[in-house]
Amino acid sequence: MRISDRLIPAALFTVGLGLVSAFGFEGTGTRDGMAPAAAVDTVPRSAAPAAALVPPMAIPNVSGGPTGSANAALPAARPVTRSLTPTHPLTPGEAFLSGTQALRAGDTKAGIHALEYAAENGHALAEWKLGRMYADGDQVGRDDVRAFDYFQDIVDNHSDDTLGTPQARFIANAYVALGGYFLNGIANSPVKPDPLRARDLYAYAASYFGDAEAQYRLGRMLLEGQGGPRDPWQAGRWLKLSADKGHYQAQALLGITMFRGDGIPRQAPRGLMYLTIARDAAPQDKSVADLQAWAFAHASDDERAMALSFLEGWLKGRRD
User: Residue 100's pLDDT is what?
Assistant: First the structure.
């Protein structure tokens, strides 16, 4: 069911999404108007008590292990690679192109050989491609330790690459992937759960690269108190940045947090708006649909009417 079918037909007009003015989400500082990454570890401010509303289900938890620095002494391992012996010297870029073409042609062995040569010579996209292949088990056996090594090497050597370059979003993705490994650890390996390090990695990718997935994951950790103090206000700021970029999980989590008033003043109309947007963006996700239905059922007529007004503004802004 589309958004317009759920409420009433929208009479599209611009309404500012005044979340930040409502409870102070905007700030000054680095990319996306956010404070520097260090600011996310501040002790949360007191806020109005949450409404005594508990939905029948919640957004699934991203589980993590105990906090600490168990991985502080991990060696900066690089993946084992082989030397490519072409008939003429290849640049890392040429090797990367050769590798990707071989993979598309179905020659996995030659493709990996060429990508390893490019990665060994510092080509970030080759390292990312190999990392994703081993993380996903794509054309190779899944090997999280090898994937971890490739992502770690990207983070170690490309953290200050220029924004706006073609490889910037892949570097941000490496931060997110590495953060996931530190959040949960890798079984039967030296990589142990380290939520503090995961939170730092998400914070850097969220602030420097403005990555929507990193912003969502950082907001979630702040909301749940993983890897540091719980801070619903900072969580809301990061979730809003991600939600406004179209990340449906951030929209759903922000929406239910606002609707319930979980650590922030309750704003049911805004919350219902974000939940409706998330539901429409991911109709296959039953958990989001259930949350939206619960919020709609518990909203007053006035709250539903205000949510519609905010929704019309959102849709108008997206079409302009």
Answer: 94
* CB 223 within 8 Å of CB 262: yes
Q: Which residues contact 315 (CB under 8 A, 6 or more apart)?
A: 3, 10, 12
DSSP characters over 11-24: -------THHHHHT
C-alpha–C-alpha distance, residues 79 and 14, integer Å: 52
Indicate the residue type of 72: A
What's the rounded mean pLDDT across residues 281-297? 96
How far is it between the farthest Cα atoms of the chain?
74
DSSP 8-state code for residue 142: -
Cα gap 20→281, rounded to integer Å: 23
Which residues, other chains included, contact 51 with Cβ-Cβ below 8 Å and sequence gap of 6+?
Answer: 260, 261, 266
* Per-residue model confidence as pLDDT tens digits over 14-28: 333 333 334 445 433
- Reduce the DSSP state of residue 196 to 3 states and report it: helix
The CA angle 213-267-253, to the nearest 5 degrees, is 25
SS3 30: strand
Residue with tokens 């109709």: 283
pLDDT band at 154 (very low <50, low <70, confident <90, very high): very high
Q: Write phi, then psi, for 235 (nearest 5 degrees).
A: -55, -45
**Around Cβ 190, how many Cβ atoms within 10 Å?**
14
End-to-end Cα spacing for the chain:
23
**Nearest of 39, 16, 28 to residue 270 by alpha carbon:** 16
H and E: helices and strands count for the chain: 14, 0
CA distances from 210 to 107, 177, 184, 222 (A): 36, 15, 23, 17
pLDDT of the residue at 58:
40
Q: What is the pTM of this model?
A: 0.74
